[in-house]
Design brief:
Helices cover 32% and strands 23% of the residues. The chain is α/β, with parallel strands linked by helices. Strands 1-2-3 form a three-stranded parallel β-sheet, covered by helices on one side.
Length: 69
């Protein structure tokens, strides 16, 4: 595929796997928790991938904000 969205990326496992399988695809990993976003970025770096975009945001049908516990 030309692109992969890893929504709720957690630690970025699927984003990293997608990059390994298809190095030419555009990969976007979306994770709402800042603590886990840094884990995704660390996993991307540790695997030597520089073309995975990591976004700190939640995905839903409405705009707004919410607290996560």
């Amino acid at each position: 595929s030309r692109g992969v969205l890893d929504i709720g990326a957690n630690t970025g496992l699927f984003a990293v796997a997608a990059r390994a399988v298809n190095p030419n695809a555009r990969i976007v990993a979306v994770e709402p928790l800042m603590e886990l976003t840094s884990v995704v970025e660390a996993n991307v770096t540790c695997n030597g991938y520089d073309r995975i975009e990591v976004v700190t945001a939640a995905v839903g049908r409405m705009r707004g904000s919410a607290s996560f516990f």
